[in-house]
Amino acid sequence: MDALPKLDLKGKVSDIEWQRRVDLAACYRLVAHMGWDDLIYTHLSLRIPETDNYLVNAFGVAFDEVTASNLVKVDLDGNILDDSPFTINPAGFTIHSAIHEVRHDAHCVIHLHTNETIAVATQKEGLQSLSQYSMFSLPSLSYHGYEGLAVNDAERKRLQSDLGNTNHMLLVNHGGLTLGPTVGDAFMRFYDMQRACEVQLMLQAAGKDTIAVPKSIQDNIVAQANVVHSGATGGQKAWPSLLRKAWRLDPSFMD
Asked: Domain Class II aldolase/adducin N-terminal spans what residues (predicted)?
């Protein structure tokens, strides 16, 4: 069995880059803990502030093996910028680079292949207003049709156009995607969308008539959420507790 190379970048990169590395590594571990990972596939990316450089997982490293030091720093074209023994999946970074190129507010992008997001994305009616969780996704939700593996540069423009200014996307036949100004925001947006898809599928499996949330209530949910979070975002409120959870599960993500 081949062991992963041991890296230690703490103190060798800027404090702000190190904190971003810790946040993103924690997010990878939490995604694995939630059962949302897909072996070595799918990606979470995070912009390093004041740069056009991004952190992404090394290709071949499982999500529960990701550490702050073994994340790979790349530019918008996917070129590796640091002295890393790892490579990245260039096809996997295609989606992320396309989004980072046009959405400068989206410092973090999460793209995952969960069963539930694939299933709901592939239903003609898409995500429906059947739970409180869906209320957080529906006001800012877009869809992108399947075009095969993301290796075609021509798809980038279509993906960018379909995404627009939304923060949640369901990719038909493919999975889900969320973005946010922080890791916490992107994670909580995916959490809500994932739970919304799970509940929808459970209700459909029950085969009973359902009660949709009225449009008047849907329109007021965002304002209500601002009251609940006292002007902060759900991601900002939740992330410190999620970091603590990641540390309790396995503090090695901070290496």
From this structure: 22-201
